[in-house]
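FAQ: What does the model actually see?

It sees only this:
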Amino acid sequence: MATTVQQVYDPSIWHISYWELTIRLVAALALGGLVGLERELGGHSAGFRTHILVCVGSAAIVLLSIYGFAEFSTDPNVRLDPARLAAQVISGIGFLGAGTILRTGLTVSGLTTAASLWVVAAIGLTVGAGFYYGSAVLTVLVVVSLFVLNKLEKKFSRTKRKRDLVLRVNKDSASLSKVVTELHRHGIGINKIIVENEEADTCDGDDMLIVRLQLKLGQTKHFEEVIVSLAAIEGVFGLEAGVESL
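And it is asked to produce this:
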């Protein structure tokens, strides 16, 4: 009976050599760096260093979870659960990812970077647990998705260019309809439109509207000329254009 128990339970599985531990942390650094390099080259808020830190930190957490409590592995009163700390990493990384998501007007950016941080944490957990092949394949798939598919998306999405526009117009005039007509004349579509009454304490006597537009630029190349023509419309008293996005 004792022999059977010994075969089923081997305390050595809870121990790791310094050499193996170093390899796993360095592998996490390299794999996280590959994903972070693509984000860094794209000028995103979370870049090379951030992705490395997330990946190495996740690997360290899973190493601690599996091997950090080896001295208690033979204690009958202690039940080890290596997945518990790993689960907390997956939940906690959401707070870091949330910091990369920005909303400017009607445009939301940073979702892809937030997702890449979450996946990099998964890569760190995978390599920390010793699944080298799985973590390498996952890294290749992520880099291909971010880099290659991003190039293809930009190539085939030139007609999906977007830009936010905020106008301050007279409520009693036909200026809003003139703005829409002028945009259509330049081949610009409107994806979203939000009309709000201007707050009373900011008005200068006339009833004003704040109009927020998300424009579909299409093949329009000279947006500056469109801005000038819109500003010349009677009843338009303010105009603010956001940056172009896809």
